[in-house]
Amino acid sequence: MRLPAARATDRLFIPNFCTVRPVFVLVLMAELLAIVLTLSTATDVNASFYDLALKSLFIQWVTLCCAAVLCASRTFYSRLSEARVAMVAYLSMLGITWLLSELAWWTLDYLSNSMPLGAASRGGVLARNLAIASIVIGIALRYMYVHHHWERRIESESEARLQALQARIRPHFFFNCMNTIASLTRSHPMQAEKAVEDLADLFRASLLPVRERVTLGGELELCRQYLRIEALRLQDRLAIDWQMDELPADALVPVLSIQPLIENAIYHGIEPLPQGGVTRIRGQRDGYLLTVVIENPKPADGRRSSRASHGFAQENVGQRMQAFHGESGGLAVEDLGDQYRATLSFAYERADDADPHR
Amino acid sequence: MNAPTMRILIVDDEPLARERLASLIRELAVGEVVGEAGNGIEALTAVAAHGPDLVLLDIRMPGMDGLEAAQHLAHYEPPPAVIFTTAFGDYALEAFEASAVDYLLKPIRKERLLQGLQRARVLSRGALDILKERTGPTRARTHLSAPVGGSLRLVPVDEVLYFQADQKYVTVVWTGGELVIEEPLKTLEAEFGERFLRIHRNALVSLSRVEVLARDGVGGLAVKLRGTEKRLPVSRRLSGQVRKCLKSMRKAEEGLPADA
Predict the structure, then answer these.
(1) What values do phi and psi take at B86, rounded to 5?
(2) Choosing a second label site near B202 at 20 to 30 A (CA), which of A20, A261, B70, B232?
């Protein structure tokens, strides 16, 4: 399974021509095109205005018909891939141009004997119109496509930034933790003290910039601190099988890249199970490729989803891993029914040698 | 209620959270802790065993959570008063406000606990309905319950084969036997509609238990369920829908497993 994809809706790159604004912009653009076309052949002023009026009339007709068709086929488009949408939209708009060109030619031919389109033959007019349309529509679609993706990127970047801030410490964890400490303060002041220290370290790490890199040893220490706090809360429901000795402690990883995955395992896997279970955390080294595998039992499927999706932390970790380690970095997750497995892989890099591959 | 003899049950999945509540109650000297439980099901057993006046009920717990436990608790005669305890982020606090149900935020303050204990009361049906509605329609119960004798019989929804309605009651047939409950099929269908299929005006069957859909010999269709010999008739009116639903389910089973 890949990481959760972006929202399924609203992915269409063609603006919604069922609303006023895009249609208005389109009409404006069409008028500019009419002016450009008129200017390119303009000789005297009076004839030019007549020419502009005629061209505007035709182009606006085509434009509005195109907008209507794009509006009407929106739901149909949303089921197609982007390439198909582009192709279907392109061809249907060319079709509209062709139809209206035919219509215009016959109308003008019928209305006047003076041949306002010049001495051009029907075939010539159609060919010319279609040639212009194929270029202009192509450019327009390309523009919509680029614009859409640019907007999407801006959106997802700011969203990711926000998530990065929020995903660090789950409020649920924080408040329960405070409750635990309040309880320990009475009965076991020493443990309370330790819990406060661990929590403080976790908080400090969560306040580091997202781009900060730490040593694997440091990150694993954070994980152990986190697990100590969870052990206070969950007690014997939490069992950890920790096998991380194979990994070099001096490898660099993004800060809070492993801890959130362990937190996910506990939050989604151990906490909802009345008897708890064993979370396995294994480190493997294969030359310069390091992997951390986190496996946890989870409640059977079909349970209500009162716990929001894993996606949040996973996406965040996966993205940062890729940003740091490029091709070699990544997160894969597998749902094995009653088990869940997250595999984090990344290249072995140290602070003092930027490129260990040599 | 606020006599010093108030009998209190503490329900929380975290032992330290229970410990703290117990010591706060001891200090306040307004009642005595008669028992503790670590999840909803344990809580129901403990209520049957100790008959507390008040249950301090954590919301997020494994197995059966506090909100569901509260619904089952309402079947006890007399039902105990309930105060929810919750950490921020567990469930929409707005739901509690709307239903006027009392809740305590963790870490719980001593003064606030005292206040809560003094005005603790039994949850009304109306409040429970509002809570259920506001906390989301996706939250189906994990168990069904009915009072049997002096205690409460619980049936895990996962183990239910089918529901059958007669004049007044609905019979739940499950792997462990049968139980008569006082809920109309319509509300059961609304709550468990994802996992149960209406095959007749009077019957709702578990989709995962359907073994085969076959002719019944007299021109109609009948459903055979795994785990029972009985065949349940499919009404003529619903036969189209039933066929379609089972077909799409088969297809989904053959296809790729659903995403996590």
Answers:
(1) -155, 150
(2) B70
Q: Which pLDDT band holds residue B56 (cuts at 50, 70, 90)?
A: very high
Distance from CA of B220 to the nearest CA of A (A): 32
Chain B neighbors of A340, CB-CB under 8 A: 260
ipTM: 0.75
Per-residue pLDDT tens digits for B159-176: 999 999 988 889 999 998
Residues of A in contact with B140 (CB under 8 A): 304
Give pLDDT tens digits for A239-292: 999 999 999 999 999 888 899 899 989 988 999 898 999 999 999 999 999 999
H or E element at residue B7: strand B6-11
**Which is more confident, A159 or A54?**
A54
CATH number of the structural domain spanning residue B28: 3.40.50.2300
CA distance A274 to A288: 40
- Residues B148, B60 within the same domain: no
Amino acid at A168: R
Does CATH number 3.30.565.10 belong to domain A171-347? yes
Q: With an 8 Å Cβ cutoff, are A171 and B105 in contact? A: no
Nearest C-alpha neighbor of A273 from the set A222, A223, A307:
A307
Lowest mean pLDDT across B14-28, B123-137, B138-152: B123-137
At residue A117, the pLDDT reads: 53
Lowest mean pLDDT among A25-29, A346-350, B134-138: B134-138
For residues B175 and B232, membership in a common domain is answered with yes
Interface test with B, best of A306, A333, A334 (most B CBs within 10 A): A306
Residue A240 · residue A194 · CB < 8 Å? no
Chain B contacts to A (CB-CB under 8 A): 13-17, 19-20, 23, 38-39, 41, 60, 62-63, 65, 87-91, 105-108, 136, 138-140, 142, 158, 195, 257-260
- Exposure of B75 by Cβ count < 10 A (0-12 exposed, 13-18 middle, 19+ buried)? middle
Which of B105, B134, B163 is a domain's end point?
Answer: B134
Containing structural domain, residue B15: 6-134
pLDDT surpassing 60 at residue A353: no
Residue A254 contacts residue A211 (beta carbons within 8 Å): yes
Cα(A172)–Cα(A233) distance, integer angstroms: 12
